[in-house]
Amino acid sequence: MTAQLPRSGPVLIELGARPEEPVQLMSPDARSSYPTDVRARLRADADTVLARYPQPRSALLPLLHLVQSEDGYLTPAGIEFCSDVLGLTGAEVTAVATFYSMYRREPTGNYRVGVCTNTLCAVMGGDAIMDALRDHLDIDHGETTADGAITLEHIECNAACDFAPVMMVNWEFFDNRTPASARELVDALRSGEQVNPTRGAPLCTFRETERILAGFADDRPGALESSGGAGEASLAGLRYAKEHAMSAPQAAVPGEDGHPDLGAEAVADTVRDKPAPAPSATVPPQPGTTETDPATKGE
């Protein structure tokens, strides 16, 4: 006799975005189309961008920044504009726009304040900074202050780990932050003070930043100067590597059979000069050694 499993009801799986995640490029004040004068101005700028690309559709990313500089985020009007200019469907434009986190789906304040909460920045104080700013501004991740000045967000790693914890305002670096210095920074932004990042040119507004990202001239003083290079933490690692003659292995050259030909010299480079550690409290003995194999114990 075969046992029969009890019948269960249907299993319902909810697909799509989380309830709190913005997925529609629409808000109560979002424009569905541009007035004639605005469209003409954007079209002239778009033609400048298009002239840089042999294939028009390659200009989609900078054009999304262009319309974001107009509205502060992506609106149905901006999607329609990019679609018409490039001969793409609205679905194609939206698919790209919703893939990249730099394109906003909701209105953005004058300053997009991002706090890195990836591993290193988090353990160095990034989580504490984010909590402090939530309390200080009385907003949560993704929200904007009532005065329209600050939009607060978590950000992913921006390759500045030697300066952790790091904040970014409109994609400019503010290094080695603390909860206190983070609060001072947002207060200065809200009061209208001119704020300079740790590296780079003086801050401009989110919309001005978006126009620069679209490929137009960055006229800020110091915008084209060097940002100062690596931090002390990275340089310390470099010095250690040089002191111990450490280097990256040579790239393998394909052999006659098409597989990488490492050669005896390259293989030797992959073997450490030091012998394997002896068994200890933290390094257990290997099977088959005199310490574990009764047949060889005592030899």
Write a structural description.
The protein is of the alpha+beta class. Among the domains are: 36-97, Arc Repressor Mutant, subunit A; 111-205, Glutaredoxin (3-Layer(aba) Sandwich), CATH 3.40.30.10. It is built from nine helices and six strands, in the order H-H-H-H-E-H-E-E-E-H-H-H-E-E-H. The chain has helices spanning 36-50, 60-71, 76-86, 90-97, 119-137, 179-191, 206-213, 232-243, 263-269; strands at residues 111-116, 150-155, 167-169, 172-174, 253-254, 260-261. The strands form two sheets. It has a four-stranded mixed sheet. Strands 5-6 form a two-stranded antiparallel ribbon. The protein is globular. It starts with 35 loop residues before the first helix and ends in a 30-residue tail after the last helix.
Topology:
Layout: H1 36-50, H2 60-71, H3 76-86, H4 90-97, E1 111-116, H5 119-137, E2 150-155, E3 167-169, E4 172-174, H6 179-191, H7 206-213, H8 232-243, E5 253-254, E6 260-261, H9 263-269
Parallel strand pairs: 1-2
Antiparallel strand pairs: 1-3, 3-4, 5-6
Helix pairs in contact: 1-2, 2-3, 2-7, 3-4, 5-6
